[in-house]
Write a structure and sequence with these properties.
Blueprint lengths: L1 H17 L12 E7 L6 H18 L4 E7 L4 H14 L4 E4 L3 H13 L4 E3 L14 E3 L4 H14 L4 E7 L2 H17 L2 E8 L7 H9 L4 E5 L3 H13 L5 E4 L6 H7 L7 E4 L5 H11 L7 H16 L5 H8 L3 E3 L4 E3 L11 E6 L2 E4 L2
Parallel strand pairs: 1-2, 1-3, 3-4, 4-5, 6-7, 6-8, 8-9, 9-10
Antiparallel strand pairs: 10-13, 11-12, 13-14
Length: 360
């Protein structure tokens, strides 16, 4: 009888042992995070810059259970839709860093929303992002802020007749609208506002109109390095003597390396290029300075990492926790408002002797 009791006791211990709650934490459950951005085409340099920043940020997060899945959007709306569908349906990601260009982000957002997969953009600045869904976040401020900042910069520099060259897409259209409205409110005049296709490298017709309108300053709004470089070269070729200003996408070695002396004196309004600690970590890993939006890429993946650390593993849980996240990031303070937006500040850089220098 005693033998039977002992056997039953061992059996019960085995059963109870199997029923013990799993104590595995979120930190040990592999979570796939998509990276949606341009890795080919005219905007590929931005995608690579952001991906490098993501890798630095992921190492800094301390989590080793995040698996990155890279997908190319080419900064195109249709391509972004295909890419986000693949990331969600085939790869099974629970969150996405991206998109990069506003048009692609806005195209992908409804699909992410429908599938309850949060997207955290490191660089999409269109004001339309604010109202694009509960699952869309960004660690870069809206152009509703940068457009006003840029307008004041031009005005404070003493220029009163502004010409604008902007890409005909969500990003360029939104930025141009805010910039133009604010410059007019300050007392300046937008004498010409000319759109071009994002990948266009022949802007002579638009530049000629700006010249004929008598502009004393030109603001270039572009997220295509090829297009921005072409604009600066053709401004010089056509003899347009103006002060040059540019949006944050123009701040990078790809611009100064290819535009040469035509970029000299270019003023760029830019979001943060990163803390010194981030710059040092980037240099140690890639032996190069961070490119555009690299620090924002680091903050986007770290925001997702923080949401996971708070106990999330599914897309819906990560989304809920993102609204609770608050930390000092590589690009500034990260705290999302009810629209998934952050409030950011801007820096001014000017090209001197072929290099961007922070303006005092």
């Amino acid at each position: 009888m005693k033998k039977i009791i002992v056997i039953l006791s061992v059996f019960l211990l085995m059963v109870l042992g199997c029923a013990t709650p799993d104590t595995t934490t979120q930190e040990t459950t592999t979570i796939k995070v998509g990276v949606l951005g341009p890795f080919s085409g005219d905007a590929a340099s931005y995608g690579e810059s952001i991906k490098n920043g993501i890798e630095v940020g992921l190492e800094a997060s301390g989590l080793d259970n995040i698996e990155l899945v890279i997908e190319d959007s080419k900064c195109d709306g249709k391509e972004a839709v295909s890419a986000v569908n693949k990331l969600i349906s085939l790869d099974g990601v629970q969150a996405i860093v991206g998109g990069v260009c506003s048009g692609g982000t806005l195209a992908a957002a409804p699909i992410a929303e429908q599938n309850q997969v949060p997207m955290v953009s490191p660089s999409s600045t269109s004001p339309d992002i604010t109202d694009a869904g509960d699952y869309l976040f960004r660690v870069v401020p809206s152009d509703a802020f940068q457009g006003a900042f840029g307008a004041k910069l031009v005005y404070d520099k003493g220029y009163r007749k502004l010409g604008v060259l902007y890409s005909n897409e969500d990003y360029g259209v939104g930025f141009n609208k805010v910039l133009s409205e604010n410059f007019a409110e300050l007392g300046g005049e937008v004498v010409a506002s000319e759109a071009h296709e994002r990948t266009s490298v022949d802007l002579r017709a638009q530049i000629t109109k700006v010249k004929e309108a008598g502009a004393d300053a030109v603001y270039i709004i572009s997220n295509s390095a090829d297009s921005a470089v072409a604009a600066m070269k053709q401004i010089k070729e056509l003899g347009l003597e103006v002060a040059l200003f540019g949006s944050e996408g123009l701040k990078g070695d790809v611009i100064t390396d290819n535009a040469g002396d035509t970029a000299e004196g270019l003023f760029v309004t830019s979001v943060s290029g990163g803390t010194q600690a981030f710059i040092d970590a980037h240099n140690a890993k890639f032996e190069s300075n961070p490119g555009p939006f690299a620090a924002q890429g680091a903050d986007a993946i770290q925001a997702i990492a923080w949401a996971i650390k708070l106990g999330a593993s599914t897309g819906a849980e990560i989304k809920d926790n993102l609204y609770k996240v608050e930390f000092e990031g590589d690009s500034g303070s990260i705290k999302f408002d009810e629209n998934g937006d952050v409030f950011g500040s801007y820096e001014v850089f000017v090209v001197k002797d072929g290099a961007f220098v922070a303006e005092e």
